Give the backbone structure.
Amino acid sequence: TLEDDTFTIQCTGAGGQSSCYPVCEGSLDNVIGILKAKDLAGDTLNPAAIADIARRRRALVVPETVSVIGLMRNFQEGNHHIILVADEFGIIQGLVTTHDLLEAIAGDFPDENEGRFIEPIAGGWSAEGAADLFLVEQTTQVSGLRPENDSCATLAGLLLEKFGRIPSAGESITFSGLRFEVVKATRSRIERVRISRTDAH
């Protein structure tokens, strides 16, 4: 919280994964913009100067009823690092980062060496939704799975783009010589996928 004689600016962090902060004047419901950590690198923290910087980077506020697909589109189209979430009365309920979105789709990311993301099974591989696409390419020896625009980094993110929605367990899709069958999914995430080669491949 930075204060001077005329107003108060409160900076609420987006967790350890983010370097961006919503800046609020007076209360958390009066968001004036977004501040990056590098903006605070000066020798002094002048509230008026910080407020001026924040106002140049407007915050995106979405309703709490927004879908996972809607959030993904907002991140992709607006080049946002964090998005604020408000209820029907316009009261800020929290914020979402790209890291939060990935975990909503693919599940929590485990610590290093905690479990295996992809493993061989009869006729192919069993992969977690959070499996890194580079790892999937290495394991299946199929290149070109990762989008050129880096719009996603996990298997679940790739399938979400291909389906255009959260698929149900049992649904499958074929591309790049591979068949991807959703084995386990919830209303908000793809948890496990079976991968096999197609006959053509």
About this structure: Residues 42 and 175 are 50 Å apart (CA to CA). The chain has a mean pLDDT of 78. Helices lie at 47-55, 68-78, 98-106, 133-140, 155-163. The chain has five helices and twelve strands.
